Amino acid sequence: MARLADYFVLVGYDHDKRGSGDGQGRIIQRFPEKEWEDNPFPQGIQLFCQPSGWHLVLERKSPNFFVAVLTDINSERHYCACFTFWEAVESSQPQKNHTNDVDDEEDSKFVQAPQLFAPKSLVLVSQLDHTEVFRNCLGLIYTIYIDSLNFPLESVIGNLLTCIIPITGGSQRTISLGAGDRQVIQTPVNDALPVSGCSVALLLKQLGINNVLELFCAALTEHKILFLSSSYQRLTEACRALLALMFPLKYSFTYIPILPAQLLEVLSSPTPFIIGIHSSFRAEMQDLLDVIVADLDGGTVLIPECIHISVLPEPHLLQTQTALSMVLDPELEYADYAFPPSSMSASSMKFQDKEIRAVFLRLFAQLFQGYRWCLQIIRIHPEPVIRFHKVAFLAQRGLLDVDFLTKVLEGMAFARFVSERGSPYRPCDLFDELVANEIERIRSEEGNAQKVLKHVKEISEQLHRNENPYPAVAMHKIQKPKEGSHLRVQQNTFPHLDEGTVQWIIDQATAKLKNAPPAVKAEMKCMVPMGPPSATMIDQNGIVLANSARRLEVVRNCITYIFENKMLEAKKLLPAMLRALKGRAARQCLTQELNSHVLQNRAVLDNQQFDYIVRMMNCALQDCTPLDEHLVAAALLPLVTAFCRKLGSGVTQFAYSCIQEHLVWTNLQFWEAMFYSDVQNHIRALYLEVDGDHPSETGCNSVEKQQRSALEVAAEQLRMWPTRSKEKQQELIDKEESIVYSQAIHYGNRLTYLLLPLDTSKNRLLRSTAVGDLESVSNSFVTNSIAGSVAESYDTESGFEDAETSDVANSVVRFINRFVDKVCTESGVSNDHLKALHANLPDIVQMHIETLDAVHRESKRHPPIQKPKLLRPALLVGEELVMEGLRVNLIPDGREESVGGSLGGPPILPAEGAIFLTTYRIIFKGAPIETLAGEQTVIRSFPVASFAKEKKINQQSRTDQDSQDGLQLRSSTFQLMKITFDEEVASEMVEIFRKHIHKLRYPQYVQSTFAFTVGQSPKQVVESKQKEKNPSLRTMSKNIMKNAKKTIGRQYVTRKKYTPPTWDQRATPHGDNLDQISVSEEIEQSALTLSTTIRSDKSTMSHMVERACCRDYQRLGLGTLSNSLTRSKNEPFRITTVNRMYSVCRSYPSLLIIPQSIQDSTMQRISRCYRQNRFPVVCWRNSRTKAVLLRSAGLHGKSVVGLFKSQNAPAADPSQTDSTSLAQEKYLQAVINSMPHYADTGGRNTLSGFTSAHMNSSGKWGSMRGSGRLSAYSLNSDVGLRLAGKDTLSPQANGGPSDSHYLRQPRAGLYIIGEKSQLKGAKQDPSQQWEVVPIDIFDARHVKTSFKKLMKACVPSSSSTDPNQSYYRSLEESDWLSQLHKLLQVSVLVVELLDNGSSVLISLEDGWDVTTQVVSLVQLLSDQHYRTLEGFRLLVEKEWLSFGHRFSHRGAQTMASQSSGFTPVFLQFLDCVHQIHLQFPMEFEFSLHYLKFLAYHYVSNRFRTFLLDSDHERIELGLMYEEKGEKKNQHTYKSVWDYIDRLSKKTPVFFNYLYAPEDGEVLRPYGNISNLKVWDYYTHETLSEGPPYDWELVYSRREQVDDGERAPRTQRKIVWPCYDNQNKTEPDAISKLLEEMQSLESELGQVPDKWKETWDKIKTTQRTESKQEGKHLSSSSLLMSSSLSHHRRSQCVYLHEAAVGSTLNLSLDTDSSTTSTPSSGVMGRKSTSTLYSQFQTSESEHRSYEGILYKRGGALLKAWKPRWFVLDKTKHQLRYYDSKSDTDVKGIVDLTEVESVTLGTATLGAPKNIEDKAFFDLKTTKRVYNFCAQDSQSAQQWIDKIQSCLSDA
Questions:
Q1: How many percent of the chain have pLDDT more than 70?
Q2: Which helix (H) or strand (E) holds 468?
Q3: Would you say residue 1419 has pLDDT above 90?
């Protein structure tokens, strides 16, 4: 029973505080004045009466009513019902004080004051929530006052305050306040269920289903929620509704349905809340960033961006939404019906409310199903102590990763739920019944809307009955005020009530109550039903892994083998077992199986068994999710103290010392759950025993008892507790406490075992718990317990051991103390026991440390377990090991191919092996850890010289052994090695390894690179740690320094003094090293005599003539050396020797081409205008238009002015012109005059005089597919509008130039292409004959950054799921392709200009980067000579090597250039060539492999070709002419070209079979980014053999070990991406045939021909055959076939052996046909059809005979038409097509139906001039076919072929 109302309060406006801004309220009267003892009066009630603030108003308002909720300090809620009305204010006050509502604008003395009204509130304070009753009571009091009824207010209020009603039980109580009124109060049947009225239905009506669900989830996951409305009562209702939806959880945070204005700062509170405020304060919440705002009036819910609400997991979310929409909108289901049922309408609000709550109640039953099985009872007496095992609950339900449920279970509401509902013996309610009995029903009905609705209605019935157990009785009788009574003008104020009267009534009632007998509430306690265990619900969708049984079988077998000591069998199964342990079932099986092998808590194993068992335990712990880990660790905990091995006499090592690394052991929650679970088991056992002594009266048998759960046992004990005697009670309390105490000691020991590391000098706990740091020294996986090297590297004899050990001990003791304090306090252990525990712990730890020391000592002596043997890599001749292999694991990076997964194939990485450092490469060689791929060899290597960047990594290895730390090594050959070092590798060795890499990568001088040192005397491999000085190097370095000083301006003269390298690998050469000395002498000599030699020595001159450049100049007709020396005038150009001493320009070659008319003496002057003195020289000449291509560096700033002199100096005054700019102008004019059509006229010439024939450029646009594609080629807009018009007229559809080749606009004789930034502001002089084209071009810095990004995109270090870091995004951001686009664009522009007869001077940057790229590309596109192997070599030697591209500087080859970084300008050029090659595959003699080979070796430093920065430097080092007279070593090549020549003779690897050039072909590739492809050089790798660019390592050597295993005996081949070399395992057909021919020749005892000779023979025979055939193939089909064959090749689709013959045929045919030789007939036909069939059908293999026949139509008088017929023996049919290029079969004659083939006769309309015997007829069962062949001979052939087919059948 309880009071209906505790206090009645009258609150009014405080007139005394009026002048100070906002008004205030004050309590006028309060009844009773004395506070109740059990319920003190809540403070601050006046704020809540007027939540918006106390204000006077100008007109009377209608009375209003709402209920505010106040929460006191004990979390008790008080309901304050406020009834507010307005009274007139007496106007005796001076007017000027009414400042808050009226503005005084005039003098107030004479003005009549307006009437003001003040609010007054009647307030009831109660602990019960009966809103309507309060409304009626307060309304009655107001009615008596306003209508002056004849009832004393005092007695009404006294009666109200003394009204006592029951709280619960469902009874009705009629009350009357003594004013002729009557009300019935209905109490709920069960007060545990919230009473909601219609508030829930109203909330959903206001906000909608999804918004309410979001609020519901937000409230459960503890977010801040704010309701807005203009109605206070609505705010209260909404808050009440939200709380009702949360049942059975109770809200534990701040709950203020109506928040007064003065308290708005509460909204900034850091804790969660549910608060309501008036809409007028909306502006106040602008700065609330973490509050979810629900606007009840507008129906919106606003969730700030920074808040993430965890939503209900599926399928619950969808089910809830569906059920709610069925309740709220039942018509939705039938909305589309043609005849909807008439009776469907939603329930009334009152019933809807309960149905909605029923839906949420079902939801909670589903979410919490089986929760009682996860309650742990720790104590039963004197008070039950219960904990919830969250991890077990989530794991059993399979919901470990459901964010929402995890948060709910961690929340305060759930903690309260467990404390209130955990007890096994208590009253039950609707939720308990649902969760215990209805779960099966809920599950089975899911998806059946009608059944779900029926169940919802049933639950809602119960909820409704709880609030309204009886039918509504209309017994209410309440007086209400008359209409409009509040507007009366003359109203009295609310009277002052007599306190005495009211108090007297209250006292009388209290006295009565004292005498009444106390109401005894019979508590209906019962045992709470457990419900079905949730284990039955793990796989709700029935997804049981189909192969889990097989996996469990593997686990069982493996463990059986281990314990039966069948180690070989176990070893084979182990990897599969470790893989299986990734599944939860397998981990469970492991623990069960291991348990079965433990006898009397002990299992002694031998070393190998121990090692395997520990690895399994580690694997099981490692592969699980953090929460799942708890369950696995819990199952393993008893086992780790059982399995052990004997190390020596009396020394035993237990498994726990090897599995301590896992973080779960430092997790307090895990230990608590384990502790409580053990305590529960013991307490259950205790009471089962107790009951065994005293058979209980129920008389249930002992079997049932043994099966009862701990909670059931506890419920029984709680029921019997009051019946036991005091002594018995005390005895049970003591027994329980002793159980908890003994378990605490036991767990103290367990914690000690798992927290103290084996080597106690390392404190694992401090690091891992503080930082969660996974890097701690491993002893988890090392079962020989940190073998030798690591252990010794920590100095245990340092003298600090004791201090360190005590530090470890202290931290472990602190951790255990924390644990013990927590669990013992929760379990109610007495203080004495706790103190005793704390006193014992340090001793336990200390004892354990002493035993561990012995174990550690012994384990170090133990022989380590065998690790796989290290595989040694094959080395090149002259390549020596610098460091022996360090044992490492190669771990996967961001490339997907090697790890199996979605791309197929087994995971090749991670692999275990060793990393070797040689003088040339860094090599990893090993085998995959994955046993399925374990027989393969994995090799990954790259040249040391290409090493780009290293980064330290720490990898928690997933492999067998936990590696220490790792390195990530990146190379500019697009390779990445992520390695982790094995624990046997000392950290000093890792450091030495790193230092050596850096020394080898950045030697002091170029002479120290591999290309120079190769083949020198053997070096000692680093194994020891001493480093010796190298005497021979010292002498060499002195020589070098001596020479360096003598040479002009040598770069390293000014650098710091050279200290010779002290590398260990150079330590042995004692005595003189001949090779080095000869090099240094040679250098010295050439350096000393450079000046004299070149002047006098004729041999040097002849060397120069032999240089490639001169040969090329001679070919181009640019002059010969002899002509230049005799100065014959008829040539426009000559070779000058002005730079023979490299005195004019050090980075140019010694011989240069300049105009004949320019004197050598002026060159020095001209060169000063240009950067680096690189003046314009001619490098190529167009044989047709005689236009020349020149190159130079950009002009110096001041020299730019010279080009445009007219704007700076008046032309009339020659005295002011500078002599250098005159010389420059003269030079340019001489170039222009050299061209025949410019030489005659002095003025500007147009090209209109040229005939179209002369101008016609035979260029090829785009790719071979090209003709029909719209990709209009347009010039770069940067080239400037002037050029756009002059360059190409309207381009054709396919992007070619316009048909008309007349250039209608005047064209300059010479275009100078310069940098925009340099030329800006300069104006053109119209009198000059040259024109400057400013372009925007990137510089070397951009290339460098772009390349870094490209490397990261193509070879990412780790896989990323971030869409912003996807491969294509990274590729785009690298800008690499847009730089290629720019280069190709500029090159094509220059090609156009040259082809149209204008000369071009490329004058960009320093003339050695972009200039070189553009000049080389232009020559390659314009001159087919450079597209041959010989010509390309020449191009590179001339433009890149001779003209001084700074290979050493850009490649950062020495220490000096280290800071400048790696800038792959040459690689970019090769990539451009690759792009052109893809578009014109038939124009290049060399293959794409050739380009990759150059790209690899230009950074590898294997050859000397690409070392140093210019010819001058090469001469200084004696490299230029060293080939002469030097005896070549057979195996070491100094020049890459020699190597390529030698290799080309052996194998066609560099040859392009599609090579079929057209004469004088000018290529114009498409340069748009969409036409560019990423070069597979960047992305492709071959793990079986390493990079395929060192031929000796890959092809000549077959690995004996793996070859047998890797090549299966069957015909079937498996080619793994990234592992196999595709060219080798699946060679293209031609290579395969050439190989077969060679092997057949050698078998026959013939000397095999060289491949090139064979190839040439085949080609010539092919040509002659095709010439004999009469007809031409249509060019389009040729074009198509060749382009398709190219595509076939480029996509790496290899043709299988079945089609070999035809493929060869195809390639040769294409080859010959593109040179426009006629071909047709069978041969030609075969190629196209075969080609097409490779894409569509496999018919090509079955073409027995084919050719053209005339066929007569079926109907009479039908015409004869030629058709292409194909006789197919295999399919036994004769097919025909429209033409031979056609692929659609027009008809088929089935040969099974043919009766006869006979010679026919000519009939009407037959083809003319055909002999009679050419006709034949084919008779089938259905009709007769008339055919006509070309002649009688072919007709006979056809007949014979068809006959043979028929007879074969």
A1: 75
A2: none
A3: yes
Contact partners, residue 792, CB within 8 Å, separation at least 6: none
- pLDDT score of 1480: 94
- Reading the block at residue 1087, the tokens are 């350096």
- Residue 1338: in which H helix or E strand, if any? none
CA end-to-end span of the chain: 107
Tokens found for residue 72:
């006191």
Euclidean distance between CA atoms 223 and 1406, whole angstroms: 64
pLDDT score of 68 = 94
Name the token pair of 79. 């309901």
* Interhelix angle 1340-1354/1465-1479, nearest 10 degrees: 70
Distances (CA, A) of 1801 to 97, 355, 839, 1797: 133, 95, 123, 13
- Tokens of residue 390, six digits: 């969250």
Tokens read off for 501: 């009267």
CA–CA distances in Å: residue 459 to residues 356, 463, 763: 10, 6, 59
Strand intervals (E) in 537-635: 603-605
What's the Rg (C-alpha) of the chain?
Answer: 49
| SS3 assignment, position 1079 | helix
- If residue 301 lies in a helix (H) or strand (E), which one and from where to where? strand 300-302
**Predicted pLDDT of residue 1521:** 64
Pairing of strands 172-175, 164-165: unpaired
Q: Tokens in use for 894? A: 């961001």
Neighbours of 1813 (CB within 10 A): 15
Cα(1337)–Cα(1413) distance, integer angstroms: 12
- In degrees, to the nearest 5, what angle opens at C-alpha 1333 toward C-alphas 1327 and 1335? 160
pLDDT in tens, 1087-1137: 333 433 334 344 444 454 456 678 888 888 887 766 555 555 678 888 898
**Residues 347-367: pLDDT tens digits?**
788 888 989 999 999 999 988
- Joined together, the tokens standing for residue 1073 give 């090293």
CB 46 within 8 A of CB 261: no
Predicted pLDDT of residue 20: 55
Distance CA 805, CA 839 (A): 19
| Cβ 324 vs Cβ 204: under 8 Å | yes
Q: Whose CA is closest to 392, among 370, 413, 366, 422? A: 370
Positive or negative: CA dihedral 1012, 1014, 1017, 1022: positive
Q: Decide: residue 1798, CB within 10 A, 0-12 exposed, 13-18 middle, 19+ buried.
A: exposed
| Residue 1211: pLDDT over 90 | no
3 state SS for 1297-1309: CCCCCCCCCCCCC
- Whether the predicted pLDDT of 940 surpasses 90: yes
Average pLDDT over residues 1544-1549: 88
Each residue's pLDDT tens digit, 1549-1585: 999 999 998 888 899 999 999 999 999 999 988 888 8
Among the listed ranges 57-61, 1144-1148, 1567-1571, which one has the minimum average pLDDT value?
57-61
> Which residues, at least 6 apart from 1687, have a Cβ–Cβ distance to it below 8 Å?
none
Mean pLDDT comparison of 39-43, 573-577, 1211-1215, highest-scoring range: 39-43
Q: How far is CA 543 from CA 312, 313, 327, 439, in A?
A: 21, 17, 32, 20
pLDDT score for 1529: 54
- DSSP string of 1664-1732, one letter each residue: HHHHHS-SPPPHHHHHHHHHHHHHHHHTT-PPPGGGHHHHHHHHHHHHHHHTT----HHHHHHHHHHHH
- Helix then strand then coil, % of the chain, to nearest 5: 45, 15, 40
What span, in angstroms and rounded, lies between the C-alpha atoms of 453 and 1133?
Answer: 100
| Contact predicate 1481/1266, CB 8 Å | no
